[in-house]
Amino acid sequence: MAASNNNNSNSNSKAEEKPTIMGCDFEIHGKVPKEAFELFAVAQAKLLGLRGYITRVADDFYKGQLQGEGKVIEKFKQLIATAAEYVAAVKEFIVKNLKIIVDYTYETFELRKSP
């Protein structure tokens, strides 16, 4: 006389709520030490769970794309702008075209070599 265990009755009627994913372009202006800054930016983005890329356009100019929750994108911006070793070098961090996206288009965050 074993009791039947019906796992199907444990269906969750509330749909799993996914956080809103945001996507944006960004620009960083400033005379930052290239290799150290690139490693720092990629490491911070990955720690925060952001996806996208960063690429060096000129000696004092980086650009890229970010995908993740809006508050996490803002956290990344704050980390870059206030990092002690770069605070004097980063002149501007601009977020452009911030919008809600349905799904991620990047698997991770990466450094792209400039063309």
**What structural class do you assign from the helix and strand content?**
alpha+beta
Topology as H/E string? Answer: EHEEHEE
Question: Approximately what portion of the residues adopt beta-strand conformation?
Answer: 35-45%
Q: Enumerate the strands of the largest sheet in spatial order, edge to edge or round the barrel.
A: 4-1-3-2-5
- Domain count, please report it: 1
Find the count of extended strands (DSSP E, 2+ residues): 5
The shape, in one word, is globular
Distance between the termini: 72 Å
The CATH C-level class name: Alpha Beta
Reported for the largest beta sheet, the result is:
5 strands, mixed
Total DSSP helices: 2
Poorly predicted sequence stretches spanning 5 or more consecutive residues: 7-15
Radius of gyration: 20 Å
Q: What would CATH call the architecture?
A: 2-Layer Sandwich
The CATH topology label is Alpha-Beta Plaits
Mean pLDDT: 87
- Percent of residues in helices comes to 10-25%
Organism: Drosophila albomicans
InterPro entries: Acylphosphatase-like_dom (IPR001792), Acylphosphatase-like_dom_sf (IPR036046)
Protein name: Acylphosphatase-1
Family: Belongs to the acylphosphatase family.
